[in-house]
Every structure is written in C-alpha cells, then in structure tokens.
Amino acid sequence: MTIKEKVSVPCEIRQGTSPVILGFPHTGTEVPPEIADRLNDNGRMLADTDWHIHELYDGLLDNVTTVRATFHRYVIDANRDPAGVSLYPGQNTTGLVPETDFDGKAIWKNGQGPNEADIAARLRDFHAPYHAALAAEIERVRAIHGVAILYDCHSIRSHIPFLFEGKLPDFNIGTDMGKTCDSAIEQATLTVVEATEGYDSVLNGRFKGGWTTRHYGRPDTGVHAIQMELAQSTHLQTEAPPFAYDAAKADRLRVHLKNILVRIERIAPDLKR
C-alpha cells in the first residue's frame, strides 16, 4: 500500500435508516505531506492499518449508516481518548499519536516525533471532526428509532508479541465487560461467533473495546456500542505487505458478519427506553 500524502476530508459519512451504525476509525491511509515527511521508512509502511475492513463489511446490512475516518492512525488515533489516557494501563499499547508501531518499533524520523502543539492541532483537525460526525449520526439514528447501536469495526494481525502472547482469536468482541451495550446485543453476537466452524472467538479478552466503544456506549440513554476486532488472517492473503485482500476468505467470513449485524438490528426495537 502506497501512503496517500493528503487528507481530502477527515471522514466519509453514508447515512442510512437502520438503527445500526458502523464505525471505521482505522481504515484510512491518508497522511498530510507535512506529517508524511516526518515518518521513517517503517512508519511509511502504515502496517497498523485495519486493512480492507470497510470493504469487508460493505453491503452486509441494508440502510446501515457508516462513518469512516480517512486519515491514518499515525496522524492521530481516532479510537483513543483525546486526553491521552491509556485504554489498558500496565499493558503495551499505542497512544493517541503513536510513537511506535504495534511491534514497538519507531515510526518517526529521529527528533521528528509529534510534540504537544502537533497533537493539539491533530485533535482539532482530525480526531474532533471524526467524532463530531459519529456523534451526530448516533443522535440522528436515535431520533428515528429511540435507540442506536454502534458497531465499531476493527482488525489486527493475529500475532503481535509486543501486544499479546500467542495467537489472537479470530473474533474478538469488546463491550468493556458488558458496560457498553445491552446483554442481548452481546449475547446475539457471541451466539453467532461460537457457532461458526473453523473460527475461534473471545468476549472481552485482550481487546475489551476502545475509547469509541467506551465513550458512546451508554445503554441507559438508548445508545449501545460493541467492538469487533477481527484477526487479519481471516480475510487477508498474508498479514504482511502488501496486505492483500483474500476474496475467498472474506466471502466465508462475510456470511457470519452479516448474521451478526442482522441479529443485532432485529434486537433494536426491544431496547427502547
């Protein structure tokens, strides 16, 4: 994947009438030239992208709303607390503006990492507009249905020793230990993934839901949020450059993802406050 040295708009929005909203904070590969120039060769590979995830989910649920960040997470991570608070205290992770990749290797040229002024500017120009758009769509959908379900879409390599031991399960469901959505949504998702053949899964394992899921998931207000972190081995040819999409693998996976989305959409009317 060649780095795209620009950012057209911070996010792309497709409005629908379903109670379900799909969030894509990490599929963007656009980087402003002045930031791209500061990345080292390792950083310019953009290895920590959620490769092809918006393509994987495309067309799975009729009339679904989607909000997708176009900028890369090395510009600023749309799924991190804007205050810079760690999602997983005491564990290896990457921050609001990452200093390293998921393998713990530097991504910036010597002395050219982001400073406080850079972070403030990127919060204003990228992080805030993405979340303003996402919040607006959540409110719009909730006004239609009395409830909104945010399904946050993610992927990651299945082996990253810097972040976790061993192999990551194929399906990683995150609800911050049940806090971010009604238990019916959690159970419906779990029921689907546990019934799949050839895949493994975990609920609130290494990934319990990022800042997006934890920030918006307020079941008592009619807003529910759940994160799905997929191992990239489920839909890529290899988890290495050029991170090519595997249509055959993806088609098998899409059957189960569609089942999840359809089930949680059907639950929505029963969740009205």
UniProtKB/TrEMBL annotation:
Keyword Cell inner membrane: no
Keywords from the UniProt entry: Hydrolase
GO molecular function, one term: N-formylglutamate deformylase activity
InterPro entries cross-referenced by the UniProt entry: HutG_amidohyd (IPR010247), N-FG_amidohydro (IPR007709)
Enzyme Commission code(s) on record: 3.5.1.68
NCBIfam families hit by this protein: hutG_amidohyd (TIGR02017)
Name of this chain's protein: N-formylglutamate deformylase
Source organism: Rhizobium sophorae
